[in-house]
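Notebook entry, cofactor series.
This is the third protein in the set we're modelling with a bound small molecule. For this one the ligand is zinc ion. I'm keeping the input format identical across the series so the outputs can be compared line by line later. Sequence and SMILES below, as received.
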Amino acid sequence: MIKFLKFLVLSTLILSCAGPATQRLNIDSNALDAETKLQQTLALQKIKERYERLQRVGYPILKNSGDLCDNTVNSIGVMFNAYVDTDKYSEIEKEVYGIDEEGIKVTYVIPSSAAFKSGLRKNDEILKINNLEVSSDREKFHKGLEKFRNKSETLKVEFLRDGVSKSVSFDLDLICNYPILLVQNDSVNAFANGSQIGITTGMIRFAQRDEDLGLVIAHELGHNMMGHISKLRTNSLLGTIVDLAAAYYGVNTQGVFGQTGARMYSQEFEAEADYVGIYYLERAGYSTENVANFWREMAVEHPGSINQSHTSTHPATPERFLEINAAIKEIEEKKKSNQQLIPNTVAE
Ligand SMILES: [Zn+2]
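Returned structure with ligand:
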């Protein structure tokens, strides 16, 4: 009998461990559907917001160093809801990005673009661009824009705003042809692959000040512009690439990161990307006064980066802090004597 009781106590204990001890509240299935949809919508809106911040911060860097770039492209600086392959988008994506809306609307204008200066704004409904009439054929719209870009034609955009028709004219921006992509990954990281720049969501959260995010973008641009890419081995990159650049740069950016992965760089290349990056940042009009602090903050969050040896792949944070400040001092002196802001090359 005692044996049996023991067994009973034991089995009750096991049973009570196997599942929750308290009741589960009943939830309404309609409310569950609504909450699911709301959370998905909020998540997509956040992605859209972060993507637009990347473009807003990065565009002046790509634009103001266009003359130093071998690889340039004419950019409109405007995003439209002109998605071609609409079947591949979910209902929520269609809603958040306005994919199914009638006509072609401006969904974002980058503030440092010529289009923005001309007065074009979000929600303007495009009627005509030069001789290109807007129709339901969105592929035709993209091809038409591409032609204008290739010929670097001045654009005359006719549009409706609050029911009133208006028009603006502007020249395309000549920018470095390294599109900036958002990589859905929580690590604090950024990448360059020779043709693009990738910034993780973790980095976007970490680099809260625009000049800090700019510093990261300018650094990655440095890797691409200085041709660090072909010489080094690849390192696989996890994360979904978010690319909402419908009719923006005019280059198909989809998936290239996934195929080629990111690179690991040597210390010399890291130092060079830091050095030229400060020039690009300065040329874009960002305040560089406090950007070296970025590396102090990085050290606080990732103390392992403080004491790296001189032979590791990345320079240690104290070194980067001091090097960035030295570059800023060099630039300040050039500004004082009205010299061009071009990085110094190695003395022959
Ligand atoms: Zn780097």
